[in-house]
Prior knowledge:
- The complex is a heterodimer.
- Chain A is α/β, with parallel strands linked by helices.
- Chain A has helices at residues 2-16, 31-39, 78-92, 150-173, 176-183; strands spanning 21-23, 46-52, 63-65, 68-71, 102-113, 117-128, 131-143.
- Chain A has one domain (20-183): Rossmann fold (3-Layer(aba) Sandwich).
- A four-stranded mixed beta sheet of chain A has the order 2-5-6-7. In chain A, strands 1-4-3 form a three-stranded mixed beta sheet, covered by helices on one side.
- In chain A, 39% of the residues are buried.
- Chain B has a domain at 33-112 and 140-206: Double Stranded RNA Binding Domain (2-Layer Sandwich).
- Chain B is built from six helices and eight strands; from the N terminus they run αααβββαββαβββα.
- Chain B is elongated, with a radius of gyration of 19 Å.
- The relative contact order of chain B is 0.24.
- The chains are: A alpha/beta, B alpha+beta.
- The A-B interface holds A 5, 8-9, 12, 15-16, 18-20, 22, 25-31, 34-35, 38, 91-94, 145, 149-152, 155, 159-160, 162-163, 166 and B 1-3, 5-6, 15, 18-19, 22-23, 57, 59-61, 67-71, 73-74, 95-97, 101, 103, 105, 114, 121, 125-126, 129, 148, 150, 153-154, 157.
Amino acid sequence: MGSIRALGVAALLLVLAGCVHARIDETAPSIETLKILRAANVPPMAVGAFVDAGGAAPVARTVVIRGSTMSPPKGASFAEFLGLSFENELRTANRFDPGAPVAIAGRLIESRAGETRAALGVRISVIREGTERFAKDYRVETTWKGDFIGALAIPEAFRQYNALYPLLVRQVFSDPAFVEALKSP
Amino acid sequence: MLNRFLSGRAKLLSAFAALMLLIAPTAAQAAKWFVDNTLGDVKAEDKKTPATPKPVQLIFEFQRNGEPNPRATKEVKPWIIESLKGTGAFSEVAEAPVAGGAVLSITFNNIVPQKELDKAKKDAFGAGLGFGLFGGVVATDRYDVTFEYLPGEGAPSIKTLVQHALHMKYGKKEVEIPGTQVKNVTEAVKTVVRQATDHGVNNLVSDPAFPQ
């Protein structure tokens, strides 16, 4: 009985090694970010371009974990997805105005994902009437315990990387220097 | 097989239940699902509704051990909206900002302690490979559901926490389950969502700070 079960386990582990191809998920806006935006009395703003700092050699490529991949949303890059994450939080907090005189823009400067660690970095600019008034780098990182079962390890790594986007947005909006730059005439 | 793991309602459940679906889908379908009896429905005599319900903007997130789960969020959100509309506490439930600036945040946190997860993996392999003949398993999904209501810009928030649970039984496990059996996993999760939402909203409306 023991050997049969061992063979079964081995067969299952082979099955579990199959590959997944997924796209990154839009993350839910959070009440924490909304409260931060309300408390700081952040003015409505537009969202400008979010680009990959690597240009033709992008820093944010498809995330690959054990042969399984996670791609950006259809028709967009990971940098553009980050811009959409900012826009989503601003819309939820009623602070998004495409016609506002002040806008934020970003350059994705870091994007890493492994089986136990992921990181995301961006250079955020505040642009008023076409002129950059502020620029600063922001970075978030996370670590977690990996799993030997691929069926658990792969989605967990994808989920951890995905979760960095709203965290990075919140970090930017929580920065008093950023808020001051938004409010400066 | 792996896509099966990632799709459907399985992703709403604990890693144990997902593992069962992965190892033995037919066995997982044969599992019995129970909604915990502790919370139950809001009794008619306890139900509160405001005299003049106001619109509210919903922010919802499904989490596992405090970490966001975007796919489960997308799946469960329509059930939350449906439940909120059924409470009668709000004139409108929208995802965009509403007049007055009221916001309701609901966070469904699925608690899966590592110790239970490790045991579940072990049991799942045993029971799954034996097609339930060599043993059985009982798994419990616990949920901490946090409600936070902001009546408007600048107003302090009202918070409440509701706890619920879902039990799954598979194989030859002779044990009393403290729950009410429902026909399938979708019905189980929907019931948990509805009961938790009803209680959470009722707690909020019962707060003197809630606009009546």
